[in-house]
Give the backbone structure.
Amino acid sequence: MSGHGPRTVRTSGLTTRGRCLLAGGLATAACSVVLNERDLLRVGAFVALLPLLALLLAARTRRTVRVTRELTPARVPVGSEVTVELHLRGAALLGAVRLADTVPDAAGPQPAAPPRFTVHRLSGRGSAILTYPLRPSLRGLHAVGPLAANATDPLGLAEFQRDVAGPDRLLVLPRVVGLRGLPPALGVGDGTPGAARAHQGQGASDVLTRPYHQGDELRRVHWRSTARYDELMVRLEERPWRGGITVMLDRRDAAHRGRGADSSLEFAVSLTASICAHLVGRGEPVALVTEEGAALTGPASVPGLDPLLDALAALRPSARADLSGPEISGGTDVVAVLGAVGPGQLEGLLARRSAGGHAVLLDIATWDPAAGGPDRNVAGTAAALRRAGWQVTVAGAGTAPDQVWDALTAGASPDGLRAGTR
């Protein structure tokens, strides 16, 4: 990606050295007139003209230098390295050009390699390539640039500064952690996902089978398939349609604590991204929504994981106070990643989803050093969700997304994961 910013001059003119030299030359010339010294007049005129000549040289360098920027890659996960290349082109330099790129701290400029350069000459082809690394520490849509160039003459008497390249976009995706398995009854029910059902051809048999699970009735064993696969297979005679899995992320600002990459919101985003990647990798149709039910899945014409990660990368906190959730049919599984749930907020979610689901409840007090310990209300919220048919796992600061998912898969108790648990 490359771009050019406005070619407006920021600062221009003589440096302090140049102004002093100009003033000294004019004063010398004035004294030579008073003293009637022609040699002194020539010296004064030369000294006064020298800064003006330097001004012309610096202006020429300003006009001839062109710079483009390239980010490789321009879309990366948190913590990955990005290489920024600055391509300079122009005529032969008659002075130095100092370049300074503008990079936000979240994009990860390294103190050992700051984006500042001084170029004294270009190659025989009139070009040069400068590089510096970035290692983004926070997800989001970051602007790299503008790039300012400061052109000076060889004696440092004049300088011109302007923006030679505008900002470029760096998309930093949330960290995705590999997960294993599925929680009970998530994506493994007797129903057929909508995508799979749509691809069934006409005339397909209405009898489907799956491996025998402990507790299944023996009268549902399909003996023909059992003989074929050499293991007990259970007949699925009725296949209710299952509309995939809806992943809900609670992004309310008041429901989270902490700042920057160590906040509970960033943990929730990373956990949500990991869940989406895991479910999409297993072939499940996934819909990503916020606490108010707004879809974050991107264009419907672009299926797969990338639109979900792009949406999570650009996610911003919401000022909403209530927690309502989306209207979800009974044939759709739900995985909710929730922040703090206050009094009266849980009823709105349960009213829209009476069939239960799976929830990760964050103990946000563990992300707040001033809180002094876990939140006493978390256990009550988890118990209320469980009474409504939800499977719940509580997670605190210091846990990892894969630990949370393992606890949810194993059906851990609401107090199974707390701060500092490894």
Remarks:
- The chain has nine helices and 20 strands.
- The radius of gyration is 33 Å.
- The chain has a mean pLDDT of 79.
